[in-house]
Specification:
The chain folds into 2 domains: about 15-105, Tyrosine recombinase, N-terminal domain (DNA polymerase, domain 1), CATH 1.10.150.130; about 120-300, hpI Integrase, Chain A. Helix content is about 55%, strand content about 5%. It is built from 14 helices and 3 strands. Strands 1-2-3 form a 3-stranded antiparallel sheet, with no helix packed on it. Helix 6 packs across helix 11 (about 250-260).
Length: about 300
Amino acid sequence: MPRPPSPAAPDHPWLRAFVDYLRSECHLAENTVSAYRRDLQKFYAWLGSRQPGALRVNDLADYAAWLHRQELAPASLGRHLVSLKLFYRYLQLQGVLADNPAELLGSQKLWQRVPAVLSPEMVERLLAAPTAGDAHWKRDRALLELMYATGCRASEVSWLRLQDVRWDDASLLARGKGNKERLVPLGRKAVAALERYLREERPELAARAAEPPPWLLLSGRGRRLSRERIWELVKRYARRVGVSGKVSPHTFRHSFATHLVAAGADLRKVQELLGHASIATTQLYTHVDAARLKAVHRRFHPRA
């Protein structure tokens, strides 16, 4: 069995092999694989001239403390530790390590932070932000309506194909993490925005591509609208309508779920719509609504 490569090696062969393993054996989403790779590249940078097999649990605890000093968000810190544990488990499975010190590393206790949520009124303003003065305002209106109507992630929206829209029952076939499929209702306003974009703007964009593109949302060159471009568009329109704080495509997802829960939607149904593997993830939105109610209580109750 070959020894683990030196951390000074350009590509860290064991890390490269681990990334291939996550793709081919574990079938993880590309965004997840990329996140694990970045986490472990940071680990190798911290290692310096040492090798993973030379570390003990105290050393790994020092690494966790070093991460904490980088002032990472709690969720990012937790993911770094998950990446490390998976990597050490992989090295043990390959016979590189006899013992796995990462098993003894405690889990990061994450603060359950309340995600940013827009009010229904602010959502309405944001959805109306693209106007005729914007280059591709009909596409952008369809994009924003689609994200709020379905709660889909930016990556899921980016990879949508024309055939994923089910016009007969006004629903959408979304592919989430691990390429898991789910059907999500669209709603009449999202349907109307999509129909207008497909009728009046998409044919012109598609004509700019070398071959007929299969993607639902197209860039100005007729290519697939990338995840990064979706982030840029959301931030641009958020600034235009004066949304305070950080706004991203995920803000639409949080707002979608929170507004459903606040209106009395069953948590299991919201879980299905979001594509969460665990109900525990969806339960966050009950805390979001509870936080909103507490804020109202503090503001208006005479003895709050």
